[in-house]
Amino acid sequence: MSLTGTPLFAAVVALTVIAVALPLAVWSKVRGPAALRLAARGTMVVFAQVTAVVLVFVAVNRDMNFYATWGDLFGTGKYVTAAPDLGPDGLGGKKAEEVKAEPKVRQEFQPVEGLGGRVKKTELDGKISGVKGDVMVWLPPQYDDPAYKDKKFPVVELIPGIPGTGKSWFQGVKAHEVLEPLMKQGKVQPFVLVSPRAMLLGNADTGCANIPGKVNADSWFSVDVRKMVTDNFRVSDEARSWGVAGYSAGAYCAAKLAVLHPDRYSAAVSLSGYNDPGQEPSSLVAQDPELRRTHNLKALLQAAPVPPPVALWMSGAEQDGYLSGMDLKALAKNPTTVHAEKVTGGHNLESWSKQLPQTFDWLSKTVKAP
What we know:
Layout: H1 6-26, H2 34-64, H3 70-74, H4 96-101, E1 110-111, E2 119-125, E3 132-138, E4 155-159, H5 168-172, H6 175-184, E5 192-196, E6 210-211, E7 215-216, H7 217-232, E8 242-247, H8 249-260, E9 267-271, H9 289-294, H10 297-303, E10 311-316, H11 322-331, E11 337-342, H12 349-354, H13 356-366
Parallel strand pairs: 4-5, 4-8, 8-9, 9-10, 10-11
Antiparallel strand pairs: 1-2, 2-3, 3-5, 6-7
Helix pairs in contact: 1-2
């Protein structure tokens, strides 16, 4: 039974109704010694409370899609098939031109329940990263317009927080619902939106890092997913045509991928992000003091041989993204640019959804159409 499906939700609703109705019906009819009556009534009360909590969790998860599967919830999903040392560029000793020249990764896509026909999903077996997981793709309304049949489109890769799934960007943040009318009106550039699986090792946060022997999350996002998209859709693999955006832990990832790979991304949007990976309690990177230090965004920017030609948008409340953006802005040297935006609203999907018009207006001026 699917964790986000209607059958489970209906079953939990029915069970909750029974759990509430049962004590009302039999409370005064419980017989036996006082201790037995007390235990029976206490069990009924606890059962009613537990089912109510489960109902709230199932309902919220159906709406926000924090956990897509039982494996996500219990941390038992297996998405890493191999984790070799792929080197500093994450290509495993290959050159970018060699990866590009490899046979095209042709995929079949299926509609995603509850998201309309334009959001589709595929299962990608990442040949470089050793990650096997789902990737969701949304095509802008212009993609199927005959007037655009010979046009290539820019791409924004969307990374959710932890917990979170690719579906979170569409069902929770409602990215396609917010952006489609703006694209039709010409207020936002028509982007292809791509949201890959981010929870690769149970409920742990990979920090979008390559950690030999554990996971090659960086190469999953920045190599395998990018190649799959360029092989299946009318998009370019040029960095100038690719942006990356994330919220919370995904915001840190988005900024880091852009700083580390200016040959793959030209811009990043960080919504309520941070610079120190240790701010995410489940971070694998933060478990090692040296990895935590070297994967701090400030350290990465300072360690870059030359300032990367990327633009960063970092927004959030003062202690929830804005000050992190100001810290990076103080370090950035041309051609790196950092825009720090203080916003109101909490650390939640609704707040991030409200920022999409402004951030995608910025992306429209920063990420170039092929």
